[in-house]
Specification:
By secondary structure, the protein is an alpha+beta fold. The protein is built from 4 helices and 19 strands. The chain is 15% helix and 34% strand. A 7-stranded antiparallel sheet has the order 12-13-14-18-17-16-15, covered by helices on one side. Strands 1-6-5-2 form a 4-stranded mixed sheet. The protein is globular and about 60 Å long.
């Protein structure tokens, strides 16, 4: 039997693509006959791994023409590599964009760059414990990228949210939208998610939905621009730890 090639193809399982994909798909997607391989296991960096979608349902690879196709979103989470969808360009973006700026950068604005956030084992445990404190809210979400030069310090539960604290920003994940009742400025992120800017005090805050919860990002010391915060926003996702 021929050896099978393992590639991360654009089978974007679990990705929330915008409605514009429908028109694109009509002329660019072909129906094929493939098989689900229920017996193939995964090991990532020495640890057993089960790919899952945004709802926590296990995913299985697809075999087509002797090639095994893996769900790219789940694979990206396992490897701590961001995966986003560029609706305007009809592209799946793996990792940070280069040359033309990072996801979330508005036309005409400059972007200082993003780097992957590396969480230690103890930090991952702290994040899981913080989310586990809320019934029905146990699945951990986390910012997977931060602006270049920013440093992650801590994560903890407080009130009805879990907050990640960095040098230049805070990222709060909650079951409700805290922007209700404030004057809102709508914004569409580069991945198609619609959010709002609001200003409860002297700090501009960005809030947007991710899965079944809401994320709010702000810069306490004002060192991040709105464009930078929006760039970080598209990399807040369900954590693989």
């Amino acid at each position: 039997m021929k050896s099978k090639k393992f590639i991360a193809a654009a089978m974007v399982a679990g990705m929330a693509l915008s409605a514009s994909v429908g028109a694109y798909a009509a002329s660019n997607i072909e129906t094929i006959k493939a098989q689900l391989n229920y017996g193939l296991g995964f090991v990532v960096n020495g640890q057993a791994y089960t790919p899952k979608d945004a709802a926590g349902k296990s995913l299985d690879p697809i075999v087509y023409n002797n090639t095994t196709y893996l769900p790219v979103r789940a694979l990206g989470e396992a490897l701590n590599v961001p995966v986003t969808y560029d609706a305007a360009g009809q592209k799946v973006v793996i990792g940070a964009k280069s040359g033309t700026g990072n996801p979330g950068t508005s036309t005409g604005e400059t972007q200082s760059g993003l780097t992957a956030v590396t969480y230690t084992a103890s930090q991952k445990s702290a994040a899981k414990a913080a989310f586990a404190a809320f019934e029905g809210f146990e699945t951990a979400y986390a910012p997977m990228q931060a602006t270049t030069g920013d440093k992650f310090h801590s994560v903890g539960a407080g009130g009805d949210s879990v907050t990640y604290v960095f040098d230049k920003m805070k990222v709060a994940v909650a079951p409700r939208d805290d922007s209700f009742g404030y004057d809102l400025t709508p914004v569409t992120l580069s991945n198609g998610v619609k959010g709002n800017w609001y200003k409860p005090s002297d700090k501009d805050m960005l809030t947007f939905p991710v899965g079944d919860r809401f994320v709010t990002i702000w810069s306490d010391n004002g060192s991040l621009t709105k464009a930078q915060i929006q760039a970080v926003a598209v990399h807040v996702e369900k954590a693989s730890f």
